[in-house]
Design goal:
Strand content: 5-15%
Structural class: mainly alpha
Region (Disordered): 1-25
Radius of gyration: 29 Å
Keywords: Membrane, Transmembrane, Transmembrane helix
Oligomer: single chain
Transmembrane segments: 35-55, 82-100
Helix content: 40-55%
């Protein structure tokens, strides 16, 4: 037993009414997106400051014993804090990209 196809091989056919029906596109100019863009940009600035602070806490100077009379120090980097700083900076970058997108959607008008 075979089941007939729901539409012909050329694809579904639209009626004349469906083709001529006016489409109402969504508006692109949405000023509230400007507020979202500003908020995301502010959070991105705070995240960059946080990444800077965490990176500074990742660098530790360890004084070396003075046997020959020459003072020295060794610098150690804490990997988990550096990783956190990079992750926070990456998140800030993503927020900047999305803030730009939101800003464009806030002021852009449809040209068709």
């Amino acid at each position: 037993m075979t089941v007939p196809d729901p539409w012909p091989a050329g694809g579904p056919r639209l009626s004349e009414e469906e083709l001529e029906a006016p489409r109402t596109p969504a508006p692109l100019h949405q000023p509230w997106r400007g507020v979202v863009a500003a908020a995301e940009a502010g959070v991105a600035v705070l995240l960059v400051l946080l990444a800077w602070w965490v990176w500074g806490k990742a660098v530790v100077s360890v004084p070396l014993p003075v046997d020959s009379g020459v003072a020295g120090a060794s610098t150690r980097l804490i990997g988990s804090r550096i990783g956190m700083a990079v992750a926070v900076a990456t998140l800030a970058g993503l927020l900047v990209l999305d803030a730009g997108r939101q800003a464009v959607l806030a002021v852009r008008t449809r040209t068709s």
